[in-house]
Amino acid sequence: MKEKKDTSAAVKCLLAMAEIEKRKGKFSKSFDHLWQAKYLSDQAHNKAQKVQIRISLARLYDEFNMNEQSVFYLTEALEISKKLYAQDSTQIDNLISSYMYMAVRQRKMGNHQEALQYLDSCFVTPSVALEKSIEMPFWDAEKGKIMQELHEYKKADTFLHLSHSNTSGKKSKLQTQYLNVFR
After folding, report:
1. Alpha carbon of 175 to those of 25, 27, 54, 107, 172: distances in Å?
2. pLDDT tens-digit series, residues 105-152
């Protein structure tokens, strides 16, 4: 049991170091940390960490517009998070994150209808819909961005204003989590 906790702690540390290196522009070091974390988490079978690592890898590949690799890791993250959610319905955050990041990736690739489908998939349960305006302001921002790219400016304006009003003056956990999502 102690070994499993040690591995989990090491993976958390590697994820944090990867993010620090990425922010410093040292992408090669960031990749190194993520690959190490992936190896450890795959050995330890920690599904939640597997999802986080795959999303981080996808986002790093996104920095280089490597769409195929980014989609590959987001697809893996989505598959793992669906299995995790099926086993434990309280494990919804990773599933929502996977859908959200896939929506962003699809939008960036110009696949707006797919992006909208992934975005709508964020509403896994009715409770997610009830909490959307509080917990998911970035959903509104992403929907607004997609509507803008589809030249549906009135809808875009509505969603972007809703997102702004839900985030104005607030700093949430999700705000930090999705900080670089709209690059």
Report:
1. 21, 23, 20, 20, 5
2. 999 999 999 999 999 998 877 666 555 544 567 888 999 999 999 999
